[in-house]
Amino acid sequence: MGKRLDLLIQLAHGLAVQFGDSCEIVIHDLKAEQLEHSVVHIEHGHVTGRELGDGPSRVVFDTLSKDPSKIKDRLAYLTKTDDGRILKSSTMFVRGDNGTVEYIFSLNYDITALLAVESAVHDLITTEKESRLSDSDSDSADDAQPQQIIHNVNDLLDSLIAQALSLVGKPVAAMNKDDKIAVVKFLNNAGAFLITKSGDKVASLLGISKFTLYNYMDAGNR
Fold it and tell me: What single-letter DSSP state applies at residue 30?
């Protein structure tokens, strides 16, 4: 292990001890030969059920598909586990000497119990006027919806495909060429085609050839 990874592991362990069993800390190695197994260290993996050798989250593929100079840490956003628990998450990108992102250092803190307490306290202290005002802000609530924690690349690809289809809003059988280009563009921007054999799956789903898929990828980049 390199000195940079050793330091990250030391920090991960210290933070895990500091914040306790509700705080999961995950280190992804973006230099790994097999990105399908990018998790090289994890503390309190029971929070999400992940283990060493598990696959990357969507943020890993987002990182690999972007210009390194434009990648910024993402702090204090919501995610959720398979069983519905809500996590407060932060993702930090650790760069090498040449500026390339080499590791991703992620914290996931289970705030489910704290949210229950907050809700109970809120009901006790909120006035009727405040309640009406909060109802009027419901349109902005979607921005704070937690993202699903993904365990492996197959689940991640399925999730990205579902999002792409939802974005277009049509069944595949009803899609025209522009709709299919929109699906491919979304998946390409999300880094989905970095997943092994993802191109075969998407081409089959859309009823197009691999050659056409590549043309749609080019069209989406224009």
Answer: T
pLDDT digits (tens, 9 = 90+) for 130-163: 555 455 554 444 445 676 676 677 888 888 898 8
pTM for the model stands at 0.67
The strand order across the sheet containing 147-148 reads 39-43, 23-29, 101-110, 86-95, 74-80, 147-148
C-alpha span between 191 and 58 (Å, rounded): 8
Cα R_g (the chain), whole angstroms: 20
Strands 39-43 and 23-29: antiparallel
- Region at 44 (left for phi over 0; alpha for psi -120 to 50; beta for the rest): left
Going by C-beta distance under 8 Å and a sequence separation of 6 or more, which residues neighbour residue 162? none
CB atoms inside a 10 Å sphere around CB 29: 21
Q: Are 104 and 111 in contact (CB under 8 A)?
A: no
Give the integer Cα–Cα distance in Å for 13 and 105.
Answer: 12
Secondary structure of residue 86 in the 3-state scheme: strand
